[in-house]
Amino acid sequence: MILNLFLSFSVLLWFVFSYPLPSAPYPLLRHPYHLSNLYYNEVMHVALVANMSWLDEELLTFQYLVVGLIDEQVRVAQVVPEQWSTADLIAFSERVTWQESGWPALDRYRLAHLGKRLEELGVDLLHALDGRLWHGVARLANAINLPAVFSANSHLDVRLMESTARQADPLRCAFTATTEPIAQAMRDRVDPAYLVQTISPGAHLGPEALLREPGEPVCVVVTGNGRMDARYQALLEAMAAVVQADPQTQFFLDGQGGDQHMIWQAASRLGLLRNLSFIPRRLGHREILLRADVLVQPQPLGRTRGLMIQAMARGIPVLAHEDPWLDCLIDGQTCRLLHGPDRQAWQEALMWVVEQPQEAYDLGQRARAWIQEHRLAAKQIAKVMDLYRRVTGATIPFPAGG
Q1: Cα–Cα distance between 232 and 226 in angstroms, integer?
Q2: What is the largest CA-CA distance in the chain?
Q3: pTM for this one?
Q4: pLDDT digits over 25-49, tens only?
Q5: What totals of helices (H) and strands (E) does the chain contain, helices first?
Q6: DSSP 358
């Protein structure tokens, strides 16, 4: 009997250790963590890591991403600063807070110490949504043996490529960029083994902007970097000329940047104060700006802003300074492009909006159609999901038969 038990146990051991595991769908699946956590589970669990600066700019983009991933059966942990309002929390998703200080070294340290909490949640993948988070998330990913995705929104993030890549295994990470020019600049910085993919922010086709009747007051929202320069000065001078021609026109300035006092002084000298207001800076305040008749971006920012994409999606006409980093700015299709600090050009563009409401409306409709074809939120989510699967080696779920 003892001999029979021994033989049976030997056969069982042979079966367990010799039976082949199912082949991995991607060569990236070379880590035991991936095999145990993703190959046999149906639900991917992603931690989206954000900071206040990015959330302040991109609250709607963040909410679209969370909701879109949940809709794709992905579990989402929202890793956000402690001061982030719970009112903006997406339901059906975990919330993990971290204490953001604004000091890069301290923030990297604090992010790296979120490992225990994320391990308890069973997170499979980290996604850093802003370049200022890359180093901290890279350290965190290494500490808890997780793959990571690093997203670039600005040309300023390109300079972080090399230092971040040194901390990351090319088989366990990927980089994304919101525009192809930014993505190409990133590829030029690192070994081709590192995956860099363009994933532009998407939008929903929100309430459509209405055709303004001739003679109705025009509401203009100005959204730049908030710093006074020659381009901003040229725009303010053009605004003063427009107000003289049409005193009903109202301008609203996005309240960002630290140079507002100089803007106020220049506006006062030009007699603009009665027609000028600042939208105070607070989380989510930029969604208020989407009620404008026209959106003006007077400076090349070198970064994608969800606000501009969302304005286009609503059919709000956009007047923008040319920007080589932004491939969404297509003159005559998505916006009216201007070049350099040219007061006369800005005056003509603003007066065109005031005097030609039908033409401005038509431009907004062309931009809305372009968004529908190229930049819907659903397309962004599909690309993000595909990238997550590539980085984690997760299988692609298929819907139940029907």
Answers
A1: 9
A2: 106
A3: 0.85
A4: 323 333 333 433 444 345 899 999 9
A5: 14, 13
A6: H
